[in-house]
Amino acid sequence: LQAQLTVAVRRHIMRYYNMVLVCDDGACRTRTRVMGVHGKRCLVAGCRGQVWPEYSDSMLFTQLLYYSRLFDVDRAKEQ
After folding, report:
1. pLDDT tens track, the chain, 79 positions
2. Which phi and psi (to 5°) does residue 54 adopt?
3. Which of 47, 57, 63, 72 could potentially form a cystine with 28 if both were Cys, beta carbons 3.0 to 4.6 Å apart?
4. Would residue 8 be called left, alpha or beta, if left means φ above 0 and alpha means ψ between -120 and 50 degrees?
5. The CATH number of the domain where 28 resides is what?
6. Where in the numbering of this chain does the Zinc finger DNA-directed DNA polymerase family B alpha domain appear (predicted)?
7. Number of domains in the chain
């Protein structure tokens, strides 16, 4: 079980550090790992959308917190 949890945590961390950005324009939906010089603007010509992380730092934090609380024996004993 410990090995499976370690693999799952590493997979989530790797997904975060891959830093895939997704365009929020419904017609575009481009996925890229390249950040343009214009900040959050989409790199596709003619697109007026913005790019956002597919897996944000808050999503990673929430997932790691879930795993932490899932196996917190002391907290389970208190409840």
Report:
1. 889 999 999 999 999 999 999 999 999 999 999 888 888 999 999 999 999 999 999 999 999 999 999 988 887 778 7
2. -70, -35
3. 47
4. alpha
5. 1.10.3200.20
6. 2-79
7. 1
